[in-house]
Write a structure and sequence with these properties.
Length: 153
């Protein structure tokens, strides 16, 4: 909605794209289907923090895809990106609980970028993620892709 999470996801994608032999896809939660989940070798779930939780569209994605993918993706690696207004921890916990049900394997600590947006105006304003935070996202993408390419994950 405000662009922060998208900036983070695109930086992660750029880091992952540098690894030869790894194919990446960036899908908006509203467009992702169970087949996309089943066909992927790894996942990065990226969400804004809304009302101390994952976004409604991310919740909808999990609602639509959880049962069709259950027992079909066990052991696959995942990571999390959260663009938060406060601390982002609850959004990470929600995703981690869902990933546990899917029997996914966390391969990195979540990258949480806190924008400190606490007023209606700042919450709804377009976000600009700092170069330092975008570097953290790129590094996570590169690490995940390298681990996949080497067969570590």
């Amino acid at each position: 909605m405000t662009g922060g999470t998208e900036q983070m996801a695109r930086a992660l994608l750029a880091g992952a794209a540098a690894e030869n032999g790894v194919t990446t896809r960036l899908l908006h939660a509203s467009a992702a289907q169970a087949a996309d989940v089943i066909d992927a070798d790894a996942y990065v779930f990226a969400t804004p923090e809304n009302l101390a939780a994952i976004s409604g569209l991310m919740k909808d994605f999990f609602d639509r895809c959880y049962y069709p993918a259950l027992e079909r993706i066990n052991g696959r690696p995942y990571a999390v990106l959260v663009c938060a207004g406060s601390d982002g921890q609850n959004a990470v916990r929600q995703i981690d609980r869902i990933a546990t049900g899917w029997r996914l394997r966390a391969v990195a600590q979540a990258v949480i970028v806190c924008t400190h947006a606490q007023t209606p105006e700042k919450i709804l304003a377009p976000k600009t993620i700092s170069a330092t935070d975008l570097d953290r996202c790129r590094e996570l993408g590169a690490t995940l892709a390298a681990g996949l390419a080497m067969g570590v994950f």
